[in-house]
């Protein structure tokens, strides 16, 4: 028998007054509540539902809401209510049925006494609310969605929170000095939550611009001191934007923003759109900044021409040394970069030495924020280091202790594909991915398959936008350009013939004839730069290291080159010391 109860009432002064006389715990007990109108919803926690409802009834931002659901439980305390509030906000944001009105500064993830026992109750509360129509999907279905993974309603870890707070406090000071232009950088390995920090910053800036003074600010929030009247006026007039160079990720984030009232009209932009905007921006956040491009032949000929025209318009000349980062800094007073130069995968991406100078500049200004904590991969930093060194000339001698993380080498591609299907049925979000080591023959509807190995015939991804969620993705193979920036539960990684071991030297080499990303191996003739064998090897290694860090729960591996496969097998067969 459940100990919790869910009380229903109308969001009116009369209903609140009637409930106060009927329920003693309505005035003096920790509770979690939901206020909604069938389309928008607000979730809160309080020690006095009576007082809090009367405060909300005075809010112009909530006057359209109609119904209240209050969750009572005799075991509730303040910590449990904060935890349940955060959970419901995150799940509602990821489910998508309602548009969540909450600010994101109060989302917490603090441990407390008997939390695991409360979590069992929270799941029961969720199921009860789902039966009453508040959720359309189960918790696993929600957690696998882009709406959840890219939601601004995330509990930041300590280093993420410190970075956000430092950036925001600095921004408050800088906005009082209109002549100041700044650059900040957040640097981290795959899975450290750079994209989440960028989305969080966008939402926090919007919350500061729109917050209702009648709303209580969560006192334990590290951002609570930002919510003062003066800052509201400061941020209200800001022109802000989020730049996402990759088309697929940009579309996914735009779709999430449309479901968040505070971000519905937020600008998710290409570098070209920043450069072409009618007005300069006050703040630009750049996600995946390592995928910004330099001068050279772009993905399409029209963009190559447009690149030169844009540079000429902004700087008065078509200086070949000017890149998209220069455009953004020209059009934005305050620029915040989220980057990992080890994820640069094409010669047209801005070269690492440019970002080395950026890191030196931000470090000198105390505006560089390293992220170190692994948020994606269940194997943690041990797996991340293992994946990095596995494909190197100094590979690990054995597999480290990866706890519950699955890592397995397959000799048969069909068997690996079947394992991915099984994991997808169990957990969802399990896909095959590969390096660009096969021609994309199926793109031209030739009837030919792209990847044929071990009697298995597979095609590259049909969709280049939101491929992971497409109906055919489980039977296709995703490339780096469709999965970079995304999470999977399990990834089946195919290392093709573009990466092999030289039988004479025993060193890893790039095999250019088996690498079919034409833009990934092209020379930059416009700038007189040749993509050397060493450059190509670096790009290909970066591609595979990104692919090897997509799986949150496990990674399966198939290797085409016999010598490399033998090396990996020997490592996996060696027990840790």
TrEMBL record:
Residues 28-100 form the GIY-YIG domain. CDD domains: GIY-YIG_COG3410. InterPro entries: GIY-YIG_endonuc, P-loop_NTPase, SLFN_3-like_DNA/RNA_helicase. This is AAA family ATPase. It comes from Brachybacterium ginsengisoli.
